[in-house]
Amino acid sequence: MSAAKALPSAYLIAGIGNRTMPYTRHSAGLLMVNALAQSFGLNLKPVRGLNCICAETTTRILAGTKHEQSMRFIFANSEAFMNLSGRPVLLASQHYLGQARDPRSLIVVHDSIDLPPLTIKPKQGGSTNGHNGIESVKSALGTPDFWRIRLGVGEYDRSSGKKEMVNFVLGDLTGQERRFFGQPGPGVDEVWKAIEGIVEQNIKGGGSSSGKHKSKAKGGRGDT
């Protein structure tokens, strides 16, 4: 009988998008990861050789539950264009999590045109839903089994054509969306709840956490 697989001792929270267009729908993931880092008083900074800007912290999570513990989190935003996100995410995961990293310890935060605006939905593995950034990460890692947190930027009718879809994802976020995805917007607190849910799912050995929600609840960070 094989030994149980060790649980992740650290998590890489990776944002993907187009850094030269930070307030477009396609860059919602970059905006969110930067906001998460700021909520811990951190500033993302370049790390040599990674093509990412990064910061890390150790904080207590799952407060008040039997799974409460200290956990290391690394926040990293890819500096590459969306379609080339895979290599920076791979390099960051190797740098911070090691060569023998567990795909469950990677959480990629990205936009989704399959979800209503201001919706947050965690997912592990499965289809990339045609998202080129996620396709790139999947290809670079050689596995689809990492976690994703999808940020709804509007349900788009794909039958309208590729050109129209590109124009949509490269369009600007509304003021409401920028507030929701940016600190101190409630979206930041909801994404942190989703991250804690992913950690708990991994501890319990459960499957994908796929609950979709739109919430205005406010949460807090653990003690750093």
What does this molecule look like?
The chain has 224 residues and is an alpha/beta fold. It is 30% helix and 21% strand. It has one domain: Rossmann fold. It has a seven-stranded mixed β-sheet with strand order 2-3-4-1-5-7-6, with helices on both faces. Helix 2 crosses helix 3 (132-141). The longest helix has 19 residues, at 186-204. It is globular. The N and C termini lie far apart (39 Å).
Domains, number: 1
CATH homologous superfamily placement? Peptidyl-tRNA hydrolase
Number of helices: 6
- Beta strand %: 15-25%
> What structural class do you assign from the helix and strand content?
alpha/beta
CATH arch. level architecture:
3-Layer(aba) Sandwich
Organism: Calocera cornea HHB12733
Keywords: Hydrolase, RNA-binding, tRNA-binding
Protein name: Peptidyl-tRNA hydrolase
Pfam family, one: Pept_tRNA_hydro
Task: Please write out the topology.
Layout: E1 10-15, H1 28-39, E2 45-47, E3 52-61, E4 69-78, H2 86-97, E5 106-112, E6 120-124, H3 132-141, E7 147-152, H4 162-169, H5 175-181, H6 186-204
Parallel strand pairs: 1-4, 1-5, 5-7
Antiparallel strand pairs: 2-3, 3-4, 6-7
Brief sketch in words of this structure:
The chain has 224 residues and is α/β, with parallel strands linked by helices.
Based on the model shown, name its key terms:
224 residues; alpha/beta; Rossmann fold; 7-stranded mixed beta sheet; 6 helices; 21% strand; globular
